[in-house]
């Protein structure tokens, strides 16, 4: 059971981390465009 829980935990954090950077970049680009 420990082996099964390990891969699941590693897979979950990797997905959110990858999705977070693109999402943060979008708002930043929009904010800079409004400021200009």
How would you characterize the overall build of this protein?
This protein has 36 residues and is an all-alpha fold. The mean pLDDT is 57. It contains one helix and no strands. The protein has one helix spanning 2-35. Residues 1-36 are annotated as: Disordered.
Write a brief caption for the model.
This protein is an all-alpha fold and 36 residues long. 94% of the residues lie in helices and 0% in strands.
Task: Considering the chains and any ligands shown, give keywords for the structure.
mainly alpha; 1 helix; 0% strand; 36 residues
The unreliable regions are none
Q: How much strand content do the residues show?
A: under 5%
Number of helices: 1
The sequence of SSEs as H and E is H
Derived from helix and strand composition plus strand pairing, the structural class reads mainly alpha
What summary fits the major beta sheet?
none
Gyration radius, in Å: 16 Å
The tally of strands reads: 0
Portion of residues in helices? Answer: over 70%
Overall pLDDT metric? 57
Give the N-to-C terminal Cα separation: 54 Å
Which geometry do the CA atoms define? rod-shaped
Layout of helices and strands:
Layout: H1 2-35
Protein name: WW domain containing adaptor with coiled-coil
Biased composition (Polar residues): 1-12, 21-36
Region (Disordered): 1-36
């Amino acid at each position: 059971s420990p082996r099964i829980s390990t891969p699941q935990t590693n897979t979950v954090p990797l997905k959110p981390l990858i999705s977070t950077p693109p999402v943060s970049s979008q708002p930043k680009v929009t904010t800079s465009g409004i400021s200009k």
